[in-house]
Amino acid sequence: MPGRILVVDDEEDIREALEMILALEGYDVRTADCGAAAIARAEVEHFDLVITDLKMPGMDGVETLMALKQRHPCLQVIVATGYASSETARRCMSEGAHDYLKKPFDMDELLRIVERAIADGRVPPDGPSAQRC
């Protein structure tokens, strides 16, 4: 079973391209145009994975990541950006991102990372935090 993915990006072209590519691979894809919309959508729908842009007006990708992980600790989140730096990559990973991708990304690489993130999310976590998931 492929999984449900939420794509969050303020650029409509990117949202639509990712939605089409992922849907062709069998994923059930929804989109949001900002972090606040993503958080609201994740409150009423289940997602296996969120792919969020880093630079967005209002709530950026790091804030979106943090809010999603606070509410849904087991949710897998990939942060994608055209403004990659080692500092932002470290921050995203320390806040619980599954991965960090530089735009423009290679579609084969993206699909491998998406598949791995969803599979990792389906493995029950160990330890005390497992009860929260």
TrEMBL record:
InterPro entries given in the database record: Bact_response_regulator, CheY-like_superfamily, Sig_transdc_resp-reg_receiver
- Give the UniProt keywords, A-Z: Phosphoprotein, Transcription, Transcription regulation, Two-component regulatory system
* Keyword Transcription regulation among UniProt keywords: yes
Name the Pfam families on file: Response_reg
Q: Which PROSITE patterns is this protein grouped with?
A: RESPONSE_REGULATORY
Entry protein name: Response regulator
Among the record's GO biological process terms, what is one? phosphorelay signal transduction system
| Residue numbers carrying 4-aspartylphosphate | 53
Per UniProt, residues of the Response regulatory domain are 4-118
- Please tell me whether the keyword Plastid is annotated for this protein: no
